[in-house]
């Protein structure tokens, strides 16, 4: 069997879905803040504390559900810190995002040492995995059925989050207010929209979804936590939502590309291809995507500025002679 035949199979698609889920959850969370004109680069840290909390609490209680809830709570707590620092105390979003990521990395290592006496990894005794869901007769559907069968509940949550996010953003009062704030804060405030409140809520939503992403990352296969196990996936999620302009469907497509690159990189390593080159693939694609997304965003912002300049400039032709 050739390398390509080993890669492009239903089993590969199943691995892709498993790897896409944490990236997609975090990216959808970041898409909410992006709609409110907040680039939340703290997704990485929120995902990391979620992964840590899911294993620590989940293994103690023996309940995957409680582990997921703990992960969501940890992500929410870090998002609250981010929101208070940026929206209440008016700190710079980028600086606070970097601080959140550093805080998460430091706190998880510190707690690993305090709780388990090992700053690198949780012991085998602290292990918990998410149960797999069988889809019954639907598993007989060629390729897609095999890929979707025996996935975790959080994979399904990630897939369902896309239409839910679209509905919330484009069909609810909150979504209309959020997009209005992202387009023009002053106009939104003049219309009676609570700008800070709407932004605050979007950041908390991102924390919830990033916490769930961390739980999927830690509990889907390994069932343990390793120092720095998010390994840049939060930044890949930022790239996905930036490439998708904060729109759920486009963000999902971008996340699928990055997740597929990650899964194929693993399979190439298993197939004997240079593992260092294989591991570089997701990050190379991320850099390329961010460059193109940045150029696209610059073009859109330029068009908006020109439109605002036209609408705000006086009509001299109508002035009396």
Automatic annotation (TrEMBL):
Top-level taxon: Bacteria
MF GO annotations: transmembrane transporter activity
Keyword Transmembrane helix found: yes
Cellular compartments annotated: Cell membrane
Topological type in the membrane: Multi-pass membrane protein
Ranges that cross the membrane: 6-29, 41-60, 66-87, 94-116, 153-170, 203-222, 228-246, 253-273, 279-297
A GO term from the CC aspect: plasma membrane
Protein name per Swiss-Prot or TrEMBL: ABC transporter permease
Organism: Microterricola viridarii
């Amino acid at each position: 069997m050739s390398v390509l035949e080993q890669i492009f199979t239903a089993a590969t698609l199943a691995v892709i879905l498993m790897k896409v889920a944490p990236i997609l959850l975090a990216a959808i969370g970041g898409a909410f803040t992006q709609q409110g004109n907040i680039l939340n680069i703290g997704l990485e840290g929120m995902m990391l504390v979620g992964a840590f909390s899911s294993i620590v609490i989940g293994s103690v209680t023996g309940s995957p559900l409680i582990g997921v809830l703990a992960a969501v709570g940890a992500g929410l707590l870090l998002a609250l810190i981010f929101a208070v620092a940026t929206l209440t105390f008016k700190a710079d979003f980028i600086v606070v995002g970097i601080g959140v990521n550093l805080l998460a990395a430091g706190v998880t290592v510190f707690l690993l040492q305090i709780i388990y006496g090992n700053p690198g990894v949780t012991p085998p005794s602290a292990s918990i995995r998410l149960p797999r869901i069988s889809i019954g007769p639907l598993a007989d559907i060629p390729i897609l059925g095999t890929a979707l069968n025996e996935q975790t509940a959080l994979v399904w949550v990630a897939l369902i989050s896309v239409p839910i996010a679209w509905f919330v953003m484009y069909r609810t009062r909150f979504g209309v207010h959020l997009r209005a704030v992202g387009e023009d804060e002053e106009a939104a405030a003049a219309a009676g929209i609570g700008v800070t409140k709407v932004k605050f809520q979007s950041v908390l939503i991102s924390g919830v979804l990033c916490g769930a992403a961390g739980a999927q990352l830690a509990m889907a296969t390994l069932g343990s936590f390793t120092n720095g196990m998010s390994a840049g996936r939060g930044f890949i999620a930022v790239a996905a939502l930036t490439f998708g302009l904060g729109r759920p469907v486009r963000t999902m497509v971008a996340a699928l590309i990055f997740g597929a690159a990650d899964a194929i990189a693993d399979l190439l390593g298993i197939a004997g291809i240079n593992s260092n080159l294989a591991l570089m693939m997701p990050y190379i694609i991320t850099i390329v995507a961010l460059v193109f997304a940045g150029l696209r965003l610059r073009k859109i912002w330029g068009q908006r500025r020109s439109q605002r300049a036209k609408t705000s400039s006086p009509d001299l032709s109508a002035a009396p002679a």
